[in-house]
Known about the structure:
This is SigE family RNA polymerase sigma factor. By secondary structure, this protein is mainly α.
Amino acid sequence: MTGFRRAYDEEFVAYYSVRAAQLRSTAYLLCGDWHLAEDLTQVTFTKLYRAWPRIERHDTIDQYARQVLLRTFLDERRRPWRRESPTAPEDAVLDVTAPEVRGSEDREVLRNALQQVAKRRRAVLILRFWADLSVEQVAEILGCTTGTVKSQTSRGLGELRDALGELTRSTTGGRK
């Protein structure tokens, strides 16, 4: 039995060493916080390790890992101690400096804008354009129809465009 388990452990360690950084990056895009992304990745790999001997089709492990990560992210967002509450009235002007849009800072601006997109739509956008999955694959991961993925993609892109426009206007002082 130990030889059987050792073979599974070696396969899992090999998979982890190849995919951990990519899954952590995907988690960061989902949540926007490196510490939470580390937690999500750890929980995902723990769940994956526990299911490893039962996974028969090793060609779909990446898709399964993304699905576990997404569900873990959505579950974390539902937990009451993770909920944030505003400390200032909604109409209060907060002293926040918007990132400037220049060269290498474009990536940070995109991340900030992505955090303003609703979480389900953000997940669809990340799976479609970051993980480069097809509409059908995203639908299977999310457990919805391809039509839902298409509409969520369209709405998510609209929200992302609006958020990018707001960030751009705030960094240029309202000038276009």
